[in-house]
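Researcher: I'd like a candidate sequence for this fold, 234 residues long. If you have to choose between options at a position, lean toward the conservative one.
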């Protein structure tokens, strides 16, 4: 069985499973992974093309809304991806209203404003510098908060690294459910943080437009390095 405990913030959290319950949970997890592999040992070429190999970053968008249910699906897929200590520091703000877009436009370089305004959704992908306060819930079998408490540089490095990892999951998830994405870094993080996250522990990483692309704005795909250029064995 699991045990409940009250921590300093007054929130009841679930601790690690113990004894027989832990053994059962581990066996169930192992069986679930084997079942997934049996159902789908690997992705077919068409699926890989969709999410990475032939996928493109998009800059123009159809006037077609993205339903909230699809954004929820993207998040749920993203949340399943691994992070260190299951710390899950990424936070997603979906900017969809004219008012929100106007606020976000303050941070953008001029050439990026039209791209953002035309997209049905622009996600501000951020990370929470105080992610570690949630570790009793996310990583219940051992209290890892002392690894981060009073260590702001370590906390920021961990949040940024794992938040960026989750951002990559997010873009792949969006493509997997039929949306197109266009990540943007041509903006001021300081302005975004002041406009959307003032007084909080959230910090922006980058922006990602979401929607159904207008492919007429695409140009040729740029080169990539060969395996031999960037890979090595030791």
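Model: Candidate sequence:
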């Amino acid at each position: 069985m699991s045990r409940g405990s009250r921590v300093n913030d007054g929130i009841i959290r679930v601790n690690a499973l113990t004894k027989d319950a832990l053994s059962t949970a581990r066996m169930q997890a192992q069986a679930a992974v084997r079942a997934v592999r049996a159902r789908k040992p690997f992705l077919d070429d068409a699926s890989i093309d969709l999410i990475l190999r032939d996928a493109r970053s998009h800059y123009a968008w159809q006037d077609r809304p993205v339903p909230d249910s699809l954004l929820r699906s993207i998040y749920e897929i993203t949340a399943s991806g691994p992070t260190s200590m299951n710390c899950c520091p990424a936070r997603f703000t979906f900017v969809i209203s004219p008012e929100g877009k106007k606020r976000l436009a303050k941070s953008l370089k001029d050439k990026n404003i039209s791209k953002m305004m035309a997209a049905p959704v622009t996600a501000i992908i951020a990370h929470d510098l105080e992610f570690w306060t949630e570790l009793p819930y996310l990583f219940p079998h051992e209290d890892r908060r002392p690894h981060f408490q009073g260590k702001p540089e370590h906390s920021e490095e961990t949040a940024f690294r794992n938040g960026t990892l989750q951002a990559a999951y997010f873009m792949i998830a969006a493509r997997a459910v039929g949306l197109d994405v266009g990540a943007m870094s041509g903006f001021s993080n300081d302005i975004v943080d002041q406009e959307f996250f003032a007084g909080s522990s959230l910090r922006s990483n980058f922006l990602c437009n979401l929607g159904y692309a207008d492919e007429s704005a695409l140009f040729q795909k740029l080169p990539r390095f060969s395996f031999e250029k960037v890979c090595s064995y030791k």
